[in-house]
Amino acid sequence: MPFIRIPQSWELSESQVTLSSSYYNRRHFLKTLIGAGVGASLVPLSGCQPKSASQLSLETTLNLPQLDARTNPLFAQSDRPLTARELAGQYNNFYEYGGSKKIWLKAQKLPLDDWQVTVGGLVKKPRTFDLDGLKKTFPLEERIYRFRCVEAWSMALPWLGFPMNKLIEAVEPTAKAKFVRFTSFYDFAMTPGPEIHLGGLPWPYTEGLRLDEMANDLAFFALGIYGRELPKQHGAPLRMVVPWKYGFKGAKSIVKIDFVDSQPATFWNTLIPREYAFESNVNPQVPHPRWSQATERFVGAGPDFSWERRETLPYNGYGEYVAHLYT
Ligand code: MTE
Hints:
Blueprint: H1 14-17, H2 20-35, H3 58-62, E1 70-71, H4 85-88, E2 116-121, E3 127-130, H5 131-137, E4 141-148, E5 153-163, H6 164-171, E6 179-184, E7 206-210, H7 211-214, E8 220-225, E9 228-229, E10 239-241, E11 254-260, H8 267-271, E12 295-299, E13 307-311, H9 319-322
């Protein structure tokens, strides 16, 4: 049975809440691929549908077990209100589940049983962790970070997780390791974003950092948000949070981490290199080729989507932590 979602009266349409240029252009790009016949096979609409909205509410998808974590005093506050949990949890980018922001229900198809992440490549101590193993090895802390999407919208989010440099300490990269590649879960049958599951896209979603970027105190792995385990739409069970870079650098649902000697290929940079650079630090002075990055639309405390126009900050306001990496 095809999934039809009737929008609530209080919901703005996606084109109202996304910068129209970015909304149009990412999708236009994908449509162009379809038009050009890139990849013949679309996932059929029937057969891999999630439960209907009446069976699974947004609240159910967000109301997950609580996680114990200490608050990191350096990141206990933000210069703006926290984005409301219900807004962040229903306005997501997760292209494995489709090109819309409203993928929260489709993303419930993400399988988490037996989840593991393997960490290897140029390291002295390769490791494989399951979720319990990660929680036992790395004490969790809470950090409120600003989050800035390349599409010029932003949020303030309370993540629970651990600094990436703790993982570096655990696996001991060799002297040859200069970059790190992060790979998201991908299974054609379980990531039902029909219009974009084309042979021409470089699945699985991958992202990368320089090793010294990963070692920076700010670079973070999240296992939770808003005091609870990470909802699937936010990239359960483990995702990257790199707050001085545009949001697409934060790969979701990571299953593999490889330390490598040269800059790895990444999903968006492979697709459209002139628009999505490998480095992609938030920079109000460097426009995206098709829109300005000088300001952003902030999704606030809710309960409804109300958008506040704000100046974009260099490095998303985290220059004191990271500017020295780019001199
Ligand atoms: N990770 C995967 N695997 N697939 C994606 O489509 N989208 C990225 C990033 N990580 C994406 C991803 C983009 S463009 C953004 S803005 C953020 O996830 C959105 O995170 P959120 O939905 O939790 O706000």
